[in-house]
Specification:
mainly beta; two-stranded antiparallel sheet; Elongation Factor Tu (Ef-tu), domain 3; homodimer; 6-stranded antiparallel barrel; 175 residues; 9 strands
Chain lengths: 175, 175
Amino acid sequence: MKSCNFSLRPIGVIRTPFNGVDDQVPIQGRLSPETQGEIHIYPEFIDGLKDIEGFSHIILFYIFHKTAVMKLRARPYMDSVIRGIFSIRSPHRPNRIGMTIVQLLTVDDGVLKISGVDMVDGTPLVDIKPYNPRFDGIDQNEPIRTGWMEKPVEKDGNRRITINSRKQWLHEQDT
Amino acid sequence: MKSCNFSLRPIGVIRTPFNGVDDQVPIQGRLSPETQGEIHIYPEFIDGLKDIEGFSHIILFYIFHKTAVMKLRARPYMDSVIRGIFSIRSPHRPNRIGMTIVQLLTVDDGVLKISGVDMVDGTPLVDIKPYNPRFDGIDQNEPIRTGWMEKPVEKDGNRRITINSRKQWLHEQDT
């Protein structure tokens, strides 16, 4: 096992309507685009927000700070089969980095109102990058395969996890 | 300043044709989709690769390990104006996390051949997530604004940074 070479320090905190991992947190922010939250940037980093208001979408990098376990294989929420951790979006990763593209609504002195959140309230934010479809999107003409995720999923874009099933999913011990 | 709360440990290393930051590294992998590289996953994490071969694109999270400075404002490569660090893609960030979407070509026992690399050879990899346009793309019908990046850029999708200009850009001290 390699040593811990790099450290992250929070640049702010993400405030959302979801008080805990057992709450009805959307499985992905893009599937719940109307769910609003706020980013509170710590004073010493506010200067880095210059020009961000020009972007409609930003990419948030944060810590899955409620996760205590690391798994190399786990059952994704959308499936019943055990998958490799790098093929799923589970928080139980070797490095607990989460990423979500959110819509940026307003910027006011270190407070960013955002939409499309899927984090627990109080999640530590470690980076913001501006979203640019030329860098971060795949051209429509380029074929995309999404492996096991290609199986049909319910069509309700706002599907949320029920409290019990999410709790069960988060706490189940597999492999 | 908050303390360093979270640490990252590399899960592997990214091999690319670019030996140093002064080399002709593409400014973004998606703008140089034919540039190939390899990911070498450390043995203790290979088990987490199960099912990844089903995905045509994966999202790499890595450390800008050659960066020694942190800036809150900097000049982006594509512009002449000093911008906030969270509005640009510069490596000189409070937390040195880089993200690139690459095409996955082959998977063979811990070695992933990939295309569309924009990292320096030897870059420490900390996470892989499967790319899913439903989670990671913006719907074509949703308006996107990209702020200062909207100014016209040369149309050669494979544009690379010349050695001298990149060196100058990387080493310039601003604000």
